[in-house]
Amino acid sequence: MTITRITPITVQTLLAIFLSSCTVTFITGYDQVIDNTLTKMKSDFNLHFIKLGRTIQDSDPANQKFGGFQDYYDQLEVDLITLEGRARNLSVKAAIVKEQIHNLDSVMHVFEALHKAGIPDRPGDDRHDIRNGINSAFDAVIKLQEELKSTGKIKSTK
Amino acid sequence: METLNYKQVVAECLAAAKTELGRSWKSFKPYAEHEFRQFTENAEFLAQLKLAGTFDNDELKARLDIQRLALKNVLLTMKGIGLITAQNTVNAVLKIVGKAVSKALGTVLPL
Question: For the complex shown, is ipTM > 0.90?
Answer without folding.
Answer: no
